[in-house]
Amino acid sequence: MSYPQPSSTAPVLAGQGFFRLKTPVSTFASGSGGGCPTDIYESTQGAAAFAIGPESDLAHYKIGYLDPTNSPSLMSIVEITPERMFSGLLYARNEPGTVYQPSGRQGRILIWPTDLWYAGYTPSAAVIPGDTVFTYPPQIDIIQYYSNPPTIQPQRNDKLWFTQYLPMTSGQTTWLVLPSYGRSYIDVEFANATGQAVTYGILGVLYSFGNFATQETTLLMAASVANNASQNKVIKSSTDGVFDALVFSFAIGGSPSANASINFRATMSDTPR
Amino acid sequence: MPPTMKPLQPFRLPPKAPSKIGVPPDSSATNPGQASFTQLKTPDTNSDNYTFFTTIPIAGQPDSTVLYTADRPWVRVTLILETAGPVAVGTKATITPVLGGAGILLPPPSVGGVGQPIVFNLAKGNKLYIASTSVNRVKVQVDPLPWLQDIFFLVQAVVAGIASLVQKP
Fold it and tell me: Is B88 within the bounds of a domain?
């Protein structure tokens, strides 16, 4: 959880019509397989609606609010996804004595992601030490509207991951772990200009609770891509499934040339195609 | 001898009798009976616009605060909530708990951030109270009511005139 917590009051004082909670996930429930992120943020402002923000990597969030009719905890929860925002007045209860039970915490609005994540994940085929694993923590992005939301529901952006360079050493594998929660259509392009053949593959990953092993699904069997050749792979939720993350492996056959480069780009979309 | 005909004279208020206990320098603004007719004929036409920020209530402090005190004979106060609330307003100090229904909840803004206005017509001396459970922006527009002020001043003038006639020996 990022400290200090993003302030939901500052946008009110600034006359902004919404509060955007945008921060990387930083904590998760303990266990070797992962767990729910334990980042819980609070808002001291009332809301007219909640929607997932354009830069969100996660696909599921829960919103907790004080509901005197829901005993014994006095907390009711709604969940938002890229397909379904929540529209309705939720009040932040900051007045003295209005608290959740049995914790006795102030009745503010609470926000937390519910997708699973494991910061310590390493692919099962990775050789540690030796291989290099680049993991991008998923981004939290939620918009809290202070006015009634637009009639057209906000959408997540089509996320573009792009790089022209990855450190690769002969005899070792470089792994790239990118979040893909809830994405329906993913287009991956890899063009090899390293001067050597590169063994390239794609895994789909589902994190798990506690000490259960992370589930891996082979989406593209690792195979050699010759120098100056390219590989394209389209991953669809209807045929391949939905994954928490995609893992890309790159193993170079020899020493890369002096001006070695790759052209790797992955476009992740919520729109089925 | 025929009776003397006097031409008709326009009606004028008789001069007021001087006070025996003295008149404070600023009494004309507070004591209607001491105000001059010229002052009474000029209604206050100034408007006032500002943004009021509600605060989070603190234990041991009053739940509601004074949003506006009517310092003119009649004013129209328009309130527009720019955030989601809840914000309760009312003319009595006991409008809490905010969601308890003792006051009026300001409606939250619709799409585009434009809220539905709530209007109060306040006589001089009345107060408008506000309470909330969070920090909110409230747009406040205070407008004079010239026609109502005219009626008010006219009534005041008539009353003052009658009072001075009664006081005359």
Answer: yes
Token digits of residue B75:
């004013």
Q: Is the confidence at residue A98, as pLDDT, over 50?
A: yes
The answer to whether A151 faces chain B, any CB pair under 8 Å, is yes
User: Which residues in chain A have Cβ-Cβ distances shorter than 8 Å to B95?
Assistant: none
Kindly indicate the confidence band of residue B129, based on its pLDDT and cuts at 50, 70 and 90: very high
Partners of A94 on chain B (C-beta within 8 Å) are 56-57, 133-134
| A-B contacts (CB, under 8 Å) | 88
User: Quick check: is B153 in a domain?
Assistant: yes
Angstrom distance (rounded) from CA B128 to CA A191: 69
Report ipTM (2 d.p.). Answer: 0.78
**Residue B168: pLDDT band by 50, 70, 90 thresholds?**
low
**What are the respective helix, strand and coil percentages of chain B, to the nearest 5?**
20, 25, 50
Dihedral sign of CA atoms B150, B156, B158, B161 in order: negative
Domain tally, chain A: 2
Is some CB atom of chain A closer than 8 A to the CB atom of B108? yes
pLDDT at B27 over 50: no
User: pLDDT category, B34, cuts 50, 70, 90?
Assistant: very low
CB contact under 8 A, B111 and A89: no
- Looking at the structure of chain B, the number of domains it has is 1
Quote the CA–CA distance of A243 and A215 in Å, as a whole number: 10
List beta partners, residue B51.
B139
